[in-house]
Amino acid sequence: MKMWRSTCVTLALLILDPAVCLTGPLLPRIAGGVDTVKGVWPWMASLHTQSHFCGGSLISSEWVLSAAHCFFSNSKFDVQVHKLKVYLGMWTQEMQHNSNVIQSDVRSIHTHNAYDEKTFDNDIALVRLSSPTSAYSPVLLAAQGSVIPSGTLSWITGWGQTASKGFFGMRPKDLPAPQILQQAVISVVDNVQCHDLLKNKRRYTRITVNMICAGIPAGGVDTYCGDSGGPLMHRYDSQWVQSGITSFGYGCAKRNTPGVYTRVSQYQQWITDIIRNQQSQNFPRFVNFPLPSAGQSSVVG
């Protein structure tokens, strides 16, 4: 199974917001992925204005987690709340192939006040739905202090662009009809190693403590344009826990070029504070991951 960093998923006929695809080095798509089974990722959200432009994850009955860069263009917040729709229970981007889809209006959008459009540090956002829903199960979140060891298997999902064949020198393709949600398996890359792999890339800044890297050494699996904001997830006992948010990458599914994700565990307090300040009682559930083995490298930052 192959997938690409910022979700390089092949999405045909899907018009993506060019601002989401062109900001920064090269933003997410899922490449090398496979079709998901309907209903297997019940918390997966599709964010629309005129069409799908980013992913997200339902983390409680009225809150969706996504990436801050999804809502900015040329350093300006440019997504109008009244034009944003969130779709839950969506399997494909062609409505006639979906059943039990919930379309929700949005009450508010909250991006991190320290989000840096140049470095993608603090690339996190919360979207409050117009009303709570109990139709779909939310995903659990990695708690503050959690450390995901290098090599941990991780799942990525999205409706973003993919590449049709070959690993190198290929152009991303839109996900072909009926634009089924894609999934793939990659593994966590230690932040120090990730820095070493990416430091010579054009426009590279740094890997911070607020980021987590994941990919496949041989390439061929990644996320891409349209996958931004979607989850990086791990199986923990009998549950799924989200530890990352698709943020940015350099190229698509290239060899020794992991994708970069927002590290969710760094933002437990921020998420909790936003929800509390909005006088909402619908908080997500956080799960503590075990500490890494002795000798695990610390993050760069």
Question: What descriptors fit this protein?
Answer:
Peptidase S1 domain-containing protein; 8% helix; Peptidase_S1_PA; mainly beta; 6-stranded antiparallel barrel; serine protease; disordered C terminus; 301 residues
Summarize the model shown.
The chain is mainly β and 301 residues long. Helix content is 8%, strand content 31%.
Describe the structure.
By secondary structure, this protein is mostly beta strands. 8% of the residues lie in helices and 31% in strands. It has three helices and 19 strands. It has helices at residues 18-22, 191-198, 268-277; strands spanning 34-35, 44-48, 52-60, 63-66, 72-73, 76-77, 85-88, 102-111, 125-129, 140-142, 153-158, 162-163, 172-173, 182-189, 211-215, 231-236, 239-248, 259-263, 286-287. The strands form four sheets. It has a six-stranded antiparallel beta barrel. It is globular and about 45 Å long. The protein starts with 17 loop residues before the first helix and ends in a 14-residue tail after the last strand. The relative contact order is 0.27. Residues 1-29, 164-170 and 291-301 have low confidence and may be disordered.
Give the overall average pLDDT.
Answer: 80
Distance between the termini: 32 Å
Helix content: under 10%
What is the string of SSEs from the N terminus onward? HEEEEEEEEEEEEEEHEEEEHE
Low-confidence stretches: 1-29, 164-170, 291-301
Tally the helices: what do you get?
3
InterPro entries: Peptidase_S1_PA, Peptidase_S1_PA_chymotrypsin, Peptidase_S1A, Trypsin_dom, TRYPSIN_HIS, TRYPSIN_SER
Domain Peptidase S1: 30-276
Keywords: Disulfide bond, Hydrolase, Protease, Serine protease, Signal
Protein name: Peptidase S1 domain-containing protein
